[in-house]
Design a protein that fits this description.
Number of domains: 2
Radius of gyration: 22 Å
Structural class: alpha+beta
Oligomer: single chain
Number of helices: 5
Order of helices and strands: EEHEEEEEEEEHHEEHEH
Largest sheet: 8 strands, antiparallel
CATH architecture of the largest domain: 2-Layer Sandwich
Shape: elongated
Helix content: 10-25%
Length: 244
């Protein structure tokens, strides 16, 4: 299985499953690895080798499990994720028969299947680059918040997570005029006055051990919040961070 991210005001993640993989089990594992606490399955296409679905029987709310073997075309897929769980509903067709229902374990990919997922908790407006990572994504261990950091500081109306601040050295926050504002799997979303500074991106990546998604923001929004953060961290140079 592979996953890739595209450029969008909200993060869209593409899952590509390979032959022999279980559609629901592999996708659900990817959802957990990518930390998709809330998301939506937008679409899906490909071919299946075997199908196992939970379908309505037409008698009230009762359902039944239906299994089919042989090459089956995945016409569409929709669903949602909640707290690491994936609920996937598909329409498939084979030899003139059309089935629709909830995907159960035992539904396997014949050649390939591609699903498009919308992350509901991504930072809106993030400028992200496309990357393809074989296998499941790795997650970084969570760092403790900076010692003594007890204040709630807002950036664009949202609290800044002190745990994210602990991932970036204080000196880099000031030198590159940046703030880590979100985490997306193994990537760190960083608000920056200059998101195209390659030296800053390289140093941030080396310091955090994470992929950096740079979000360009107006310095008039960024610098006041950055100054508050540095003051809360006890940086004596915070006073020199101007308001833009």
């Amino acid at each position: 299985m592979q996953s890739s991210r595209g450029v969008s005001p909200v993060e869209i993640i593409t899952l590509r499953l390979s032959a022999g993989e279980d559609l629901i089990e592999t996708s659900a594992r990817a959802v957990r690895d990518l930390e998709l606490g809330a998301g939506t399955v937008l679409s899906g296409s490909g071919t299946l080798d075997s199908v196992c679905l939970e379908v309505p029987t037409g008698a009230g709310d009762s359902v039944a499990e239906v299994e089919r073997g042989g090459v089956t075309l995945l016409v569409s897929a929709q669903g949602h994720t909640t707290e690491g769980a994936l609920h996937l509903y598909v329409i498939v067709t084979s030899w003139g028969e059309v089935l629709a229902g909830k995907v159960l374990p035992g539904t396997r990919v014949q050649r390939s299947v591609e699903l498009a997922l919308l992350r509901g908790d991504a930072a809106a407006g993030a400028s992200v680059g496309r990357s393809t990572t074989p296998g499941a994504s790795r997650t970084q261990p969570k760092a403790p918040p900076p010692p003594g950091f007890a204040r709630t500081i807002l950036f664009r109306g949202r609290p800044i997570d002190p745990v994210l601040l602990s991932l970036v050295p204080r000196e880099m926050l000031r030198r590159f005029a940046c703030l880590p504002i979100a985490r997306s799997g193994e990537a760190l979303v960083v608000a920056m006055a200059d998101p195209n500074n390659p030296f800053a991106l390289d140093e941030l990546r080396d310091a955090t051990g994470m992929r950096i998604q740079a979000l360009g923001v107006d310095s008039r929004d960024l610098l006041p919040a950055l100054r508050e953060v540095l003051q809360a961290l006890g940086d004596p140079a915070a006073v020199y961070v101007m308001s833009g």
